[in-house]
Specification:
6 helices, binds the ligand Nc1nc2c(c(=O)[nH]1)N[C@H]1C(S)=C(S)[C@@H](COP(=O)(O)O)O[C@H]1N2, 418 residues, binds molybdenum atom, five-stranded antiparallel beta sheet, Sulfite Oxidase, Chain A, domain 2
């Protein structure tokens, strides 16, 4: 099934039903939700993406793991991976440098006290609880998948396109790839008695309620259409062969391959299975595209990630002239496996193929290399662009949206030749 198509048309139904009172705003007042949507579409409500300055330091209140400045750039409650710190790592991002995106703070949840409650009108019976032990006793699967924030690359709307956007001013490091092990969500939903009338599945985190501009949005939760929930989604309890660490959702999180980061709910405590369509702030005012060219209620909710490329280099890195250098980087796409990557070292006039170091796979990234012998000392710019197997290539610019989601244009990486 072409999930992007079907989810978009399903969402049309969801919104029409909501307008007629047939869908439910889950855990938030209908008027508050309408206010959020209106704010998202109004240019006047924009807060510049650069509002929260990057801070340097080894820790951040609310994040458990250390955040040494050589590995991370702290942005508000979040920590961005420095791409240069991935240079000598393998395909998988080590936990010590995997980005953290927290709406509030990392909760500490003891697996012994934890249970997952599956409930709602889409079940054939009453609520069903799964303890951590019970979940671990179910058949497990492993898969490699990236988690990438929908706003990854957001700062380039401003720095490359001179446009205002709201949200965390990420460069390209709001992504990490890990090997996840857990239970298929489909397995848990079937055991809980999901019925034929179920349309939406709403996982909710155990972290604190999110208050934004004086409105309590409730706990982080985003409806997943039942088609995706029953497809390739995992309830993961292991990351790179170790129990899930606190900052990445311990004891159990969702992994929703190829979809925007927000779908991957961390610290999941309950899952509502609903026979009526559900709306939450995270699939209405947030995580849709708003702005010129989009309807007032926004685009359909974001599903798949777009495609991007990044050099494993610090911004402004310097290179000795007339020496051979090995440039390294990574490219990825939520749409399909990466097909090819090209690099330009002359500002985008000439492009040459990079060598792929990994077999491209859906939902993962590929590492690549390219040689470079710079000639003239002075400032320079490196560019990389990926093409995926759907035939899509990174464009020169990305159409503006007010919250700066899904930046996919080629990023200009400044360097100095000495
Ligand atoms: N419960 C909960 N789940 C959450 C979030 C959160 O703040 N709370 N942030 C989401 C967002 S926006 C992203 S991009 C990913 C980040 O996952 P990571 O912190 O493990 O990298 O988690 C998602 N899941
Ligand atoms: Mo995100």
């Amino acid at each position: 099934m072409s999930s992007v198509q079907s989810e978009a048309s399903y969402d049309g139904t969801r919104l029409r039903q909501w307008a007629r009172g047939g869908a439910r705003s889950a855990g938030i007042d209908r008027r508050d939700l309408l206010k959020l949507v209106a704010a998202a579409s109004a240019a006047g409500a924009l807060v510049p993406a650069a509002a929260a300055p990057a801070q340097a330091g080894p820790t951040l209140d609310g994040v458990v793991k250390p955040l040494p400045p050589e590995l991370f750039t702290v942005r508000g409650t979040n920590a961005e991976t420095n791409f240069a710190a991935l240079k000598d790592t393998g395909l998988l991002t080590p936990v010590d440098r995997f980005f953290v995106r927290n709406h509030t703070t990392t909760p500490i949840v003891d697996p012994a006290d934890w249970k997952l409650t599956v409930w709602g009108s889409g079940l054939t019976g009453g609520p069903v609880d799964f303890s951590y032990e019970a979940l671990r006793a179910l058949p497990s699967v492993s898969r490699t998948a990236f988690v990438e924030c929908a706003g990854n690359g957001r700062s380039y709307f401003t720095s490359q396109q001179d446009q205002q956007v709201s949200g965390t001013a990420w460069t390209l490091g709001a992504i990490g790839t890990a090997r996840w092990r857990g239970v298929r969500l489909a397995e848990v939903l079937r055991r809980a008695g999901i019925g034929r009338k179920a349309v939406d599945v709403l996982p909710r985190g155990l972290d604190a309620e999110v208050v934004s501009d004086g409105t309590n949005l409730g706990r982080v939760r985003r409806p997943l259409p039942v088609a995706k929930a029953l497809d390739d989604v995992l309830l993961a309890y292991e990351m790179n062969g170790e129990p899930l660490p606190p900052d990445h959702g311990a004891p159990v999180r969702l992994i929703v391959p190829s979809w925007v980061g927000i779908a991957n709910i961390k610290w999941v405590g309950d899952i509502e299975v609903s026979a009526e369509p559900l709306l939450s702030p995270w699939n209405t005012g947030l995580y849709r595209l708003f702005g010129p060219g989009y309807p007032p209620e926004g685009s359909a909710p974001l599903t798949r990630q777009t495609l991007k490329s990044a050099f494993e280099l610090a911004p402004g890195a310097s290179f000795a002239a007339r020496r051979r250098h090995l440039l390294t980087g990574r490219s990825w796409s939520g749409g399909a496996p990466v097909r090819s990557v090209e690099v330009s070292t002359d500002g985008g006039t000439r492009w040459r193929p990079a060598r792929l170091r990994d077999e491209p796979r859906a939902g993962s990234w590929v590492r690549w290399t390219a040689d470079w012998v710079p000639t003239t000392p002075g400032p320079g710019v490196l560019l990389a662009r990926a093409t995926d197997r759907t035939g899509r290539t990174q464009p020169a610019t990305t159409a503006h949206n007010t919250q700066g989601y899904l930046f996919d244009a080629v990023v200009r990486h400044p360097v100095t030749v000495v």
